[in-house]
From TrEMBL:
The organism's place on the tree of life at top rank: Bacteria
Pfam family, one: ResIII
Protein name: DEAD/DEAH box helicase
Signal peptide: none
Alphabetical keyword list: ATP-binding, DNA damage, DNA-binding, Helicase, Hydrolase, Nucleotide-binding, SOS response
Lineage: Bacteria, Bacillati, Bacillota, Bacilli, Lactobacillales
Residue intervals of the Helicase C-terminal domain: 285-439
BP GO annotations: DNA recombination; DNA replication initiation; double-strand break repair; SOS response
Gene3D superfamilies assigned to the protein according to its UniProt record, in alphabetical order: P-loop containing nucleotide triphosphate hydrolases
Stretches assigned to the Helicase ATP-binding domain: 107-257
Amino acid sequence: MIPKEYYGRLFTKAQLPVDYLSEAVKLESMIKVDKKLRCKRCYSQIEEDWQLPNGQYYCRACIVFGRNQEGKELYYFPSEKSEVDFPVLKWLGKLTPYQNEVSEKLLKTYKNQKHSLVHAVTGAGKTEMIYKIVAYVLENKNRVAIASPRVDVCRELFLRMQKDFTCSISLLHADSEPYDGSPLVIATTHQLLKFYHSFDLIIVDEVDAFPFVGNVMLNHAVKQAKTETGRYIYLTATSTLALEEQVRLGALEKHHLARRFHGNPLVLPRFFWQGRLQKSLTNGKLPSLLIHQIKKQRKSNFPLLIFFPNIAVGEKFSITLKKYLPTENIAFVSSKSEERSTIVEKFRKKELSILVTTTILERGVTFPQVDVFVCMANHHLYTSSSLIQIGGRVGRSPERPTGKLYFFHEGLSKSMLQCRKEINAMNKKGGFENEVSTM
């Protein structure tokens, strides 16, 4: 008997027990598209130098999931129906009328066998809006995957949905436990490469985020992991031209929500000119304006999140800031931090008062009542989308729907101005006519 965790999965021959091979469906390992050889698993084009000593081609792009090579097959076990307890959703919250409208449209679009794009402002409550469609699919004995390019987003979704759904849920990322066959999967988009025709619904959160946006392999993973009749839903707070083109062509049905769940507008950034920050850090000092604003903010006792465009400067700033504010609990976190999730959780629990970070925390994480300072806001690594996402950390809590959103810069950038323009436009679309400044 084939274990349930094998169904809907894609394997190389070396990954399967010999006894299971006869029961698996075989697939070609490579396919030809426009006379070019491509990997069946990840759709990467095979380069001339991707050859073994025997002359056979193999795929380097997805080798971390097991070597897929020319002349050998891939194997999969067709997905089976799942069983969940009724009702599978135990969330006792209530959607706002605006959220409920989007929730109902998602269900209707799914039943009409169409794909959806939800373009909702940061803090609109996108997670709660997908609960009804997720429950519907699960209760009809089908499988659901919720994927994100960012592992931090996956971890937060997993914790929330564990509380709100009665079924077993798998969290899959590079360092996670193996898949256990659960009907609901929360995974990084890379992990979808391990599945084949498995899910009747795939929801991709933060669809505009790196590394998913513009990535042929990861977009292929979504389409290959869904069943032939399955549907996908894309979630974003900052839509892209490519997504809007899919809407125009009818490939996606768009649902828009320009209001936060608590009914208050998005917070607009306030700009501060701040020169010579890196030079000051080299001398072990902080500019007077910046440290003045930090000290002023600390009098409020609200947590402070400080963003930097790169790791080296952010880490140096964190060390220097501790010398200026020895009584504050300060930490630095980046993509290279070994205890990243632990540090983030400490900040969420207010065991840390100031967290210095990079764009790794620009999206998908919620810190109640937080203020945000963006240093070197004119840096080329900050796009208008990333600045909007960073700004979206502020004002998410109904207990404090406002907050400080300060951009410290050495000259206004197009991204900064575009960020402010788009936030203002979203507020107007949400029914707020006047500009809403920060405190």
